[in-house]
Amino acid sequence: MRRVIVSAPGKLFLLGEHAVVYDGHALLTAVDSRLTLMIDHDPDATTPTVTIHAPNVGLDGWSASLPEVLTRTAYANKSSFIESCLKRFHEQTPLTGGFVVRTQSDFGAELGLGSSSAVVAATLYALAQLFAPDTNRMTLFEMGLDAIQRVQTLGSGADLAAAIFGGTIYYVNRKPRHVIEIPLDDLPLLIIYSETKAGTVNLVKEVRARYRRYPAIVEPIIHAMLNTVEQGKQALEAEDWPTFGELMNVQHGLLHALGVDTAALAEIVFTARQHGAFGAKLSGAGGGDCAIVLATEKQQAALQTAFADQHRRVLPFKPHADGVRVETAPIS
Ligand code: MEV
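Above: inputs. Below: predicted complex with (R)-mevalonate.
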């Protein structure tokens, strides 16, 4: 029996959500809310089986034969992402034997921090540790994007890139897709939950429908968003927070114009600005999930009080976290 334990971080969009879907680019940071995944591999299993214990998605001992998993073509279960990763990995490096997969997460899917991408990143990284330890992160990313697109056709891959590479990244969703890691000493962000779970796939479809209906309006909005990302990259590299904050405010306005803002997100954003933050915006698909606020440590203390008064949850996670990595503590 061989055992490997790995973990992958959650993610936040800093700039470029939605626009990245249209052959665009985005800035993201990994957050230190982690999904841990452990695989026990039995190379000599007489009946090769895949068993999954993933309480965060409601799987408690789900099981199927390995040949069934490796030949599946349609996915509709909670096990889909792990199954799709096993199949995609097998196409590169043949898998045999029995697999018991366990996951444990510090963050639920309701926060919108990219729990599915973290599962995909962790599954492929764990398989690579067992069968092909020289696999580089870009190859893992490409396999992961294939695995995700077999389960859900939509998706830019930005969340997955953040989970695999970690840190803070500039992600380009055009061929050849690539990731530029941005070194930072500091990223003074607060993450505030809007208390609503967003439906990412529906929001991406809604924006696409609006794009088709009003191309002359939506096209320039997307273009402006991508320019905001470009200028944001320079400000981020220089750790120029006043400029980056202003660009976050601009991006929030553009996301509002796309129709993905909510009253709760807008309230968080305006509270942050009124209390002296450099900038604030919704992060991710919108329609709920989290907002991010850029503010000095001193401003953050005042903001913590303002959000507490509004009964808003400031999430305890820090940005610029490690990407996928090996762990030692087993999942019980
Ligand atoms: C969702 O986290 C981010 C979107 O840009 C969709 C995607 O990038 O796949 C809205």
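The chain has a mean pLDDT of 95.
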